[in-house]
Amino acid sequence: MPDRGWPRTLSNVGWEVSVIEPKWNVDVPGQQQPGTILPDLVVAIRRDEHLILFEAKVGTVQTEQLDRYLLLTLEKLMSQSPEQPISDFQIAYAATSEHETSCLQSLSGHPVPLVTFSDDVVKSGNAAFSHQPTQDILAPGIQLNGARVPQHFIPIDTDSSDEEVLQAVGQALILLAVEEQQTFSDDDVLRKVFGDWYRFLSSQYRTELRTTIRSRGLSKLAHANVLGTYLFQSGGDWGIRGLNGGENANGIKAFITAVTREMQRGQFILDV
Amino acid sequence: MAVERREMIEVLNAAMANAADDLTEDQRLRFGHKLLKTYAIELDSPARTDWLAALASENTVVEPGDDNNLATLTSPQFTAFADRIEDRFVLVHSLETAQSSDRFIDGLLGGTGLDRLWLGNQTLETIAGWGTFRGFGSRFDRKVAAEDAEREDAEEAEVGTEQPPEADAMNHPVQSLRIRLSGSESRQLLNVLKEHRLLRHSVSLSSVRMRYRDEGGQVITDEVFYSGRVTARGNSYELHRGLVGRIVDAYTLRLASIEEEAALSITDEGGLMGSTVVIQLNGETDVDSIVNTVFSGTQPFRLAGIPLKLSDDYVSVRAVDLHSGSPLNFEIAPELVRAYVPAGVCGNTLLRLETNMQQYFDAAVRLELGTTGALI
Fold this sequence. Notes:
The complex is a heterodimer of chains A (272) and B (376). Chain A has 272 residues and is an alpha+beta fold. Helices cover 37% and strands 20% of the residues of chain A. In chain A, helix 6 (162-178) crosses helix 7 (186-194), helix 6 crosses helix 8 (203-221) and helix 6 packs antiparallel against helix 9. The two termini of chain A are 43 Å apart. By secondary structure, chain B is an alpha+beta fold. Helices cover 31% and strands 30% of the residues of chain B. Chain B is built from ten helices and 19 strands. Chain B has helices at residues 5-25, 45-49, 51-55, 98-108, 121-128, 149-156, 186-195, 237-262, 287-294, 348-360; strands spanning 36-43, 61-64, 70-75, 78-85, 89-94, 114-116, 132-141, 176-182, 205-213, 219-225, 229-232, 265-266, 272-273, 277-280, 303-311, 314-321, 326-333, 336-340, 367-369. In chain B, strands 1, 2, 3, 4, 5, 6, 7, 8, 9, 10 and 11 form an eleven-stranded antiparallel β-sheet that branches. In chain B, strand 9 (205-213) and strand 10 (219-225) form a beta hairpin. Chain B starts with a helix and ends in a 7-residue tail after the last strand. Chains A and B meet through strand 1, helix 6 and helix 9 of A and strand 12, strand 15, strand 16, strand 17 and strand 18 of B.
């Protein structure tokens, strides 16, 4: 039986990730300073030269933010997007089904589709997607049939919970320990967390993620009960005690044991 | 003096002939005569660049042989031949006792870079089909805690020496099962066991014994173990070596299926390639048991993982394979284990997971491609 948690429906009509959280400008009438938009995800359908800029929402759509998105023009987008050529684009919002009603109220009267996610279906029901194959799929919806939603295709983001950040950073620390990296930077950890995805992160978003990893991950783990005895900060970098001196096997073993035991028991949550 | 391949073949052929004569005449081995045991070992990518160095350790001296794919391994009271094949694999031929050989191999595999061949139920059945079925061993145990004293040393060498907690074994119709059966009707008896309502999820093969012959009429009776050990009976080392080579070839195909079809990567254009790998469970498997057992960083799973509970029965795990030092992520639910294997990660990790899931959770599980459901 295929893994129903991973329908490839949108991939099959050509959806590909263009960029994650780019910081782009829009011209605001009557103002010299441009406005800023930060779409969470930009999807490219390259064979149709079409972009969809997604803003993911937890709660309501902020009118001011929506107004800025609506100011984006094709010319302005083409001057900033890495995608070329672009014939058309569309702004869309995404939300879980519990936020559907509030988001729809804010989007009423605007040509901005809302994609909602529930345990059973992914669908849009208000404004139409101008990319017809996408509309043909999302209007009836993609049935998930209660499948377990995959969690690991895309790593953490700045809105991830503290537990998700700590889990990702913990894994990165094990990888760095196995590689016997005695010292490492926030960016080294970010690269481990994101792997192949790293190159799709805008520079602005990398900066934000480094802050997330440092403040909500590494700094907390450095004060954890057992892990805190291994992880230390040195200048702008981090280090793991016990990995030096050529007898690394024991140091690595002890550190990994500390990470897995402490994090499996959830003690790090209690002690930070 | 460097060992020559011709010399190794003569020694191993003679040892097989002596053992075959003993077993024919006396039904037991004479003092000093031992069965040939061949262990198939997989080298990860870094280990392939200097395979001799990968085999060396504080206790093991590696002496190169007369060709680039041959060496002798010597440690206190133990000597073996190392015979590299297909760039990625090494066959370790031992004439020491099974206990001593197993202990040596366990020590050899204690670090990173080297792993066994993990021959799950379906692979062992396929191998048995190449010859005439002559017997099997079956081992299933809801506890991961190893019972063999010889295993404990290897676990000491592994990260996290604490034994994983016992699974909730009493909820399962069979808590523990050990069978060793040989004879001409053993194939039928295995089928009976596998089809029994209460046993079908517990009859996990630990070995198959088979008569194997070549076109020239030479015959061997080899026993192939789930851990990649092949014990030879008969008088043709060449035929035994040919069988082991065939096992390695079949294994390579499974590795390729994981590493080429399942490996997840992102194209330069941002497209996601590959597939998840799924193990379908029966819907009643205790998620905590899997998480605590599989991801504790201990033998035999060798995965150190950090779990995060998404709901009462759905857990995300970010893990590192301690064999290869590679990241892998998982989701665990009562009805499935879903694995994400990044491109470049050794497929052996999932074959190890499958084989041990069969021995400790459900003998019927298999790896499938998440996108199509095709068996790997």
